[in-house]
């Protein structure tokens, strides 16, 4: 084989390897994540407007799903919620239906944004999925209340302040369901691999997994700067009627997105 043939052949082998990998990894093996990603998570006087994007996606693989108009979308400031659902406009994320909005910050505070999506029917898993998804934005130097619960059906409370962090920091969170800690909760972790820049060494590296302790508390060191999503998944204590008319399980996800900055050079 000459050099060119060798090149062609190795190209073919990697295409085949990719095809086999895609076949071997069904959609369901990739973790679904509710995504709520703002432009940035710290707001200063000179840059008061932030764009937020809402989607239901596979953040590392870069594979999207269509997201119906969310049932609820709001911002919580000092324990008071403001409904933002009517501000949402259609958007496209990973070639699928998503939502976007812009929010203008007027006064100091730790703003917690939250989404409650409509139940998503996943035929591959014969189940509905509802990911209650949050992210926090700190404005004008405020530093209070970042660890308050919003009273969602299920949510992750950050125990590491979720802004002003560096890649490599360990995130610590507490999983709540109906306001109570979930002992031993399983938490899936994914990096938002924008533009598919990274290739995972194996399928295990796409979705990492950490288990909470008896108080529902987990720790995960994020190895690189960027957006990291944590999804604590539990089965709901109720069913929803599926397309075939039978009652189906409902997967409830408590999802939190945090941003880690680059270490300054
Ligand atoms: Cu999917």
Describe this structure in words.
This protein has 265 residues and is mainly beta. It folds into 2 domains: 1-28; 31-260, no CATH class. It has 1 helix and 20 strands. The protein has one helix at residues 3-24, and strands spanning 33-38, 42-43, 49-58, 63-65, 72-77, 80-83, 89-93, 96-104, 109-116, 120-122, 127-139, 154-158, 170-177, 180-181, 186-191, 208-211, 217-221, 226-235, 240-241, 247-260. Strands 2, 5, 6, 9, 10, 11, 15, 16, 18, 19 and 20 form an 11-stranded mixed β-sheet that branches. Strands 1, 3, 4, 7 and 8 form a 5-stranded antiparallel β-sheet that branches. It starts with a helix and ends in a 5-residue tail after the last strand. The structure holds copper (II) ion. Copper (II) ion is lined by residues 27, 32, 58, 65.
Fold blueprint:
Elements: H1 3-24, E1 33-38, E2 42-43, E3 49-58, E4 63-65, E5 72-77, E6 80-83, E7 89-93, E8 96-104, E9 109-116, E10 120-122, E11 127-139, E12 154-158, E13 170-177, E14 180-181, E15 186-191, E16 208-211, E17 217-221, E18 226-235, E19 240-241, E20 247-260
Parallel strand pairs: 2-11, 11-20
Antiparallel strand pairs: 1-3, 3-4, 3-8, 5-6, 5-9, 7-8, 9-11, 10-11, 12-13, 13-14, 13-17, 15-16, 15-18, 18-20, 19-20
